[in-house]
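Residues determine shape. Take a concrete instance:
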Amino acid sequence: MNRREFLSTAAHVSGAAALGASVFGCSRLSGPGAAADMTDLTGMRVGISSPHKVEILNELYSDMRREAERPENQLEVVVVDADNNALKQLADIESFIAQKYNGIFFLALPSEGLDQLVADAVRQGIFVFNHGACPITGVTQNVILDQHLSGAEVGRFAGNWINEQYGGKAQVGIVFDAADPWLRIRTEGLRDGLREAAQNAEIVGEAQGHSIELGASGAANLLQAHPEIKVLLSHADDPGFGCYTAAIEAGNEDPNKFLVASCDGTRLVMDKIAEGGIYQATWSYLFPFSATAWMRDMIRCLRGESVPPTRIQVGRLTTHDNVNEIAALIRDPQAPEVQQLYSDPTVMRYSKDSLSSPTA
């Protein structure tokens, strides 16, 4: 099924119900690190292959480590960064396989080479989990984001702000990422939500960027070319923070006259939103819960249990009105009082449907 059909179908699957459904690839009868006592993780290793260094990934890995290092787990976690080099990332994953790691996590762009590496790892009994923007064929579990919904909610927020502050007419700049097809869906959502809420808003320019630095330079160029821009929207928080710094440097400091919004929900951006300035919204995917669930599902596999092949992370629109509430919610994903959120379909939901790598 295609991505839109999948998300529509999966919306009806709650996390609790799906856990009892048919699952993919978690029988641990043999393979590297097999032990007589499947509850003991001593000596087991999982590797995390990271594509690059951005704030949201630093936070994700930190929360994963917290779960792995709990006294009842004590699972060794190794993080290797590819420094934006796709070939290096493939080599890093290949190295995990050669060293017979028990599990591999990655966030990577799809490629023919990656599909082959996944197949090789799974054949050797290694559990492979993907949390990239795109699903990958054959992994033990794909974790994906509700890309269009999250982008559209941020776009609608910006459109409503334009209606309130500028009578529905304002110039808008967008920072996007063309490298990943599913991140392009998120940007489509930004555009769609904006146009739905404010039909007379005009997108006058777009720039590409995935980091704070590229977001800042792209936004600065947009503001120089179109000094009447009143809204900067970004597909992610890191380039969104760059948009914020470029806007401030250009003299846009009044939240009644200028707006920056993005998607991810990093602590850095949520702190900025709490200040009440021009950074006014992000979509929080509630990543501390996703990171913890990701590690918990890996640990289930290592202990011979089963997990569904797909998880969809949803989240919340975060603004100055609710940022403190969201911050409190994600502060400790291991706290007893928030454990019910792991089966809340507005936070995350599981599906028995396996996904495949996108085709060109």
Notes: The radius of gyration is 21 Å.
